[in-house]
């Protein structure tokens, strides 16, 4: 009887605990807005550059998807949640985002999205830096667009257009992602 109770408690506790990546706890579920739909963790992994750990990225969707094409086609709210594991300046973060955008989106699309890119850059430049342990949520809300939240505080205005959010998603999930193992992990595979 005690063994059965122990096994039951162990199974319940296992379902409640969050995934841990590089010492960062990643919640299994998340809400982009209060009262909004609960999103499920599609996958999470560690972004490294050279030998340095940079951030843990989690992808949250309304339902799990195993391919980048399916993620990009999925309608509804989405979230990329980054937790920094080292101090980052806005310039460091934006340089990587700009490289990822250029590597994974057509030049004509990036030209068309120039106003949205400028608005996104302005939001991050205003933040200036992200200390170790900070969270940066990049959310897509169908009714308003892309929203950036740093440590739970919304920054700047929402940036309209699902095409802009999908361009950002390609930084991590595109043909030339910032890190192939991180792409695999965000799509639910192992890193």
Describe, in plain words, how this protein is organized in 3D.
The chain is an alpha+beta fold and 191 residues long. It has one domain (19-186): 3-Layer(bba) Sandwich (Chalcone isomerase). The chain contains seven helices and eleven strands. Strand 3 (29-31) and strand 4 form a beta hairpin. Helix 3 (90-104) packs antiparallel against helix 5 and helix 3 packs across helix 6 (162-173). It is globular. The protein starts with a helix and ends in a 5-residue tail after the last helix. The model is unreliable at 1-17 (pLDDT under 50).
The major pleated sheet works out as: 7 strands, antiparallel
Gyration radius, rounded: 17 Å
Instruction: Write the CATH fold name.
Output: Chalcone isomerase
The number of helical elements comes to: 7
The low-confidence parts are 1-17
> What's the helix-strand series?
HEEEEEHEEHHHEEEEHH
The counted number of beta strands is 11
- Overall pLDDT level: 90
What is the top-level CATH class?
A: Alpha Beta
Share of residues in strands: 25-35%
Looking across the biggest beta sheet, what order are the strands in? 3-4-5-6-9-10-11
The CATH architecture is: 3-Layer(bba) Sandwich
Tell the overall outline: globular
Count structural domains.
Answer: 1
Amino- and carboxy-terminal Cα gap: 39 Å
Structural class by SSE content: alpha+beta
Helix content: 25-40%
